[in-house]
Amino acid sequence: MQNLLTSSPLLNLSDYTSISSLLLGTDVPGSSTGFVEPAFISARPIYVLQPQCKSGDSVTIPITVGSVNAQKEIKCVQGLPLWRNSSITINEETFRGYRKGKTAKGINEIAMGYDFQDSNENHFNVLTLYNSTYENASFIPMPFALLRIPHSLNAVSNAYLQLIQGSGVKMLLDFTKEMPKQATRLTFDFSAVAGPLFFEWVVVLLFPKKIQVMLTYLVYEKQHKLRTMMKMHGLGDGPYWIIYYMYFLIFSTVYLIVFVIFGSIIGVNFFKINDYSIQFVFFFSFINLQIVLAFLASSFFSKVNTAQAIAYLYIFGSGLMAGYLIRNFIEGGKFPRHWITVLEIIPAFSLYRGLYELGQYAVRSSETGSPGMRWSDLNDHMNGMRDVLIIIILEWLVLLPVAYYFDYASSVGHRSSPLSIIKHLLKKDPTWRRITANEIDGKDVHIEMEKVDIIKEREAVDQVLQQQQTSGYAVVCDDLRKVYHGKDGNPDKFAVQGVSLALPYGECLGILGPNGAGKSSFISMMIGFVKPTSGNAFVRGFSIQNDMEKIYSSMGVCPQNDMLWETLTGREHLQFYGRLKGLSGSSLDLVVDESLRSVNLLHGGAPDKQVKKYSGGMRRRLSVAISLIGDAKVVYMDEPSTGLDPASRKSLWSAVKQAKQDRAIILTTHSMEEAETLCDRLCIMVDGKLQCIGTPKELIARYGGYYVLTMTTLPEFEQEVEDLVRRLSPSSRKVYHLSGTQKHELPKQEARISDVFMAVESFKKRVEVQAWGLADTTMEDVFVKVAKGAQSSEELS
Ligand SMILES: Nc1ncnc2c1ncn2[C@@H]1O[C@H](COP(=O)(O)OP(=O)(O)OP(=O)(O)O)[C@@H](O)[C@H]1O
C-alpha cells in the first residue's frame, strides 16, 4: 500500500478491486503499512479497499474499533458491502488520536478519510474527510503531504470509475487543481482587525502596572494597614508617593517601549507607520494619568476586592462605551466636535480616541501607502490627537495634587474620609478643635469620684502642661477620650474616657484591663490609627492631633494584629524598617541579626522564610522585633506575647527588658506575670477609665492588704471553717465557695501568719482538712478586685 501510494502522484486506486471507507494516517495500531488502515466507518454499506483483492479472495485486514485492535479475515466481494459499522465508530476512529491524556507520540492522526456511503454501480456518493492540521506530513508521500480537497476528490473519482468500469479505465481528467491566483503578500493589519478597543484593553489590562494592579497594591497596603505600619516607622507620605510613583512609572514605561518595538518588529502598521515620538508622548502621558487615577481611587477604597471589581468594571465598561460613542460620534458625523472633546475628559475615552486616530493612519497607510501620523498632522482639525494630548496632560496636572491631597488626608495620622474632607472644606467645620467631656454629642458624661493615684497622676499632667514641659516626657496624655458613634440605632460607645498620664523616658508602663476595657483604643489613638474624640496627647512634646508625622520618626509599634507582607521574609521586613529608621550597610545587617536573635528568629532558616510560612508565634515575635528596631524612643506594644509559648515569651521579655533602658514603652497585656516582669508602673483600665496607677508593689499594697486563706473539707464542715476564719479575722470576706472549698480574704491588720498557722493546726485535729493554703495577695487578685469593683460601681451608677 505504501509503495502504491508512493509511486503515484495521486491516489490511484486502479489496483483495488473494491472500495470502502478509507482512512490514511500514521502509527495505526495493527496496521502493517504504518499509515493506511481500512476502517469501518458507516452504518451504511461500505466497501473495503484492498490491493489485488479479487472476488472470492480472502484478505486479512486490521480492524481498530475504539481501543480494540484485531484482525479480520474477510472475503472480497466486488461491489458488495463487507462490513457494517455505526457512525459512532466513525467518530471513534477519526478522533481516536486526539483523546485527552494521549501523548503527542501516541496520537494516531488520520490524514484523510473517505466514506463511500451508499455508493454502488449506479450511484457515487463520497464523503471526503480531510485533516488540514495534519502534523506528520513527513511520513506521508509528498503528494499527500500537500493534499488538498480537489486532489483527494479526483483520486476517489478515479477509483470509483475503475471500480465500475474496470481497472483499465482512466479518467481523462487527471486531477483537479485549486484555481491559480496571483501571488499576494499576506498583510495582517492588527489595528484594522482588532480596532482601537483591543489596544485600549491591551494598554489598560496588559501593562504590568495597569491601573487595577496599581490600585490593588495601594489598597492592599491600606487594607492590611501596611501603609500605616510604614508610616508609623517613619516613611512619610511624600517619600511613599515618590517611591510608588516612580516604581509604577518605570515599569510601565519600559513595557511601553518594548510593546512598541515588538509591534514594529512584527510589522504591525499601527506602530510602524506612526511617528514614534507621538506614540511615546501619547502613551507616556496616559501612563502618568493612570498612576494618578490609581492613587486617587485608592483613597476611596479600603478593601482590595471591591477596588478590583470596580476597576475591572470601569475598564471594560468605559472601553466599550468609548468604542461605541466615540466611533459613532466621529464616523456618524452627526455630533458637534466639542461633544467629543467633552467625552474625552473621561480618561478611557481620551485613550480610545488617541488609539482610534493612530489606527486610522495605520489603516489608510496599508490601503493607500500613505505615511502614518506626523506631528504636522496634529494641525489638521479632523485629527483628534492634539485635543487628546492636551486633555490628558491637563488632567494629569490637575489630578496630581488632588490625588495627593486626598491620599494624604485619608492616610493614618490625618484620617478622615475624602467625603468628610469635602464637607469640612465646604462648611469650614472646626472638626479638629478640642471639646470637653460633657460636650461629646451633648451627652452628660458621668464623672465619678476618682482614686487618689489617678487624681495625683492628673495633677502631674496638669503641671507638665502648665509649665509647657511636655517635651521632657516621652508621653503625656491629657484627658484623652474616644467615642465610637453607634450606627443603626446602637448607642455610642465610650471606649476611652479621660485618660491622663505622664510617662518619663526609660519607663515601661503596663496597661491591664478586661476585654473591651479600651486598651487597644487608647493605643490606636496614640499611634494615629484613630483620631481622639477629645483631649490630646504629646509624644516627646509633639501633639498627636497635629504632629503625628513628627512623632512617627521616633516611634515603634507592635500592633495587636500583625501587619506584615506575606511574601517578604523576616529579615527583609527588618531591613526595610531598619532603613526607614536611617540604618544602612553593615550596621543595618548587625542590627537586623541582633533583632532576629533577640526574638529567637535567627536560627532554623527563620530569617529567610517568607512570612506566609511563619507560625502565629513567629509573626508575633517578628512584629515585636520590628517595633524595637532602630532608635524608636517611644514604643507601643499591644499584647506582645499573645500566642507565644513559654520559652519564646521568656526570650521576648528579655528583649523588651533590654530595649527599655533608654526609651519609654507602653504595653497592654492580659498576663499579670508579664506585667510584673516588664513594667515599672501598671495601670488598670475598666470601661475606658483608669482605675489605678502605680508600681506593682504599690498596687498590691494598696489594693491587696489581705491574705487569702483557701481550705478544702467535706461539705458538712463548711460552717466550721467559716467560724474558724471569723475567729481569726472578724472582718474577713468570703470570696469563693464550691462544694467544700472556700476562699477567704483576711485583712493583714487582723490576721498574723503565725496565728493562722496555729489555728489551722488545732482545727485539723477536730476536722478532716483535705487541703489548705495561705497566700499573700497577687497582682491577679488586685486586678480581679479592681475590675470587679469598677464594674459594680458602674452598674450602681
Ligand atoms: N471601631 C469601633 N467601633 C465601635 N466600637 C468599637 C470599635 N473599636 C472598639 N470598640 C469598642 O470599644 C470598646 C473598647 O474596645 P478595645 O478594643 O479598645 O478594648 P480592649 O481593652 O483593647 O479589648 P481586648 O483586651 O479584648 O483587646 C469595646 O466595647 C469595643 O467593642
From TrEMBL:
InterPro entries: AAA+_ATPase, ABC2_TM, ABC_transporter-like_ATP-bd, ABC_transporter-like_CS, ABCA, P-loop_NTPase. Its main location: membrane. It is found in: Membrane. Residues 475-712 form the ABC transporter domain. GO terms for cellular component: membrane. It holds the Pfam family ABC2_membrane_3. It is a multi-pass membrane protein. Keywords: ATP-binding, Membrane, Nucleotide-binding, Transmembrane, Transmembrane helix. The chain crosses the membrane at residues 186-207, 242-268, 280-301, 307-326, 388-406. GO terms for molecular function: ABC-type transporter activity; ATP binding; ATP hydrolysis activity. The keyword Disulfide bond does not apply. PANTHER family: ATP-BINDING CASSETTE TRANSPORTER SUBFAMILY A ABCA, OS06G0589300 PROTEIN. Belongs to the ABC transporter superfamily. ABCA family. CPR flippase (TC 3.A.1.211) subfamily. This is ABC transporter domain-containing protein. It comes from Zea mays. The lineage of its organism: Eukaryota, Viridiplantae, Streptophyta, Embryophyta, Tracheophyta.
